[in-house]
Amino acid sequence: MATFPATTFLNVDLDIASPQDLAPLAKALDARLFALRVDRIGRTHWARFELRRDPKTPDLAIRRLVAAIEALPRAARARWNRASRRDFSVGIQAADMPHSSEFVIGSETVAMVSRVGGRIVFTIYGSSLSA
Question: What φ, ψ does residue 121 adopt, rounded to 5°?
Fold first, then answer.
């Protein structure tokens, strides 16, 4: 595992869970997003996507992910709407320095996520430095 000298924004994953197969949704998103996983565990279908290019901020990443969802054709958008989980998961790698870090998600971005029925989730990865 890489060691980070400072607390760092990594990326935003779009995590989707659904009772329906998500392969058609993945196909519809393929031009704009990279599918990290599209599979089924038990009765739940799962998919995880990232942007094809690394974003500089979580706000920008979320806006681009929402734009991809809003551009879906009707059938794929209906599949998105029927999903039971639609998470915009902001990944942060913690480090010992600095004492605190801020990663801003603007109010308009929050409204955009709400408009597509999503949630913003923060995933914080612990510092790999030992005491």
Answer: -125, 140
DSSP code at position 116: T
Write out the two tokens for 23: 């392969």
Element (H, E) at 15: strand 8-18
**Under 8 Å between Cβ of 90 and 103:** yes
Alpha carbons 8 and 48: distance in angstroms, whole number: 21
Per-residue pLDDT of the chain (131 residues; tens, 9 = 90+): 567 888 999 999 999 999 999 999 999 999 999 999 999 999 999 999 999 999 999 999 999 999 999 999 999 999 999 999 999 999 999 988 888 899 999 999 999 999 999 999 999 998 765 44
Burial class of residue 100, CB neighbours in 10 A (0-12, 13-18, 19+): exposed
Residue in the structure block whose two tokens are 């706000």:
59
List the chain domain ranges: 8-125
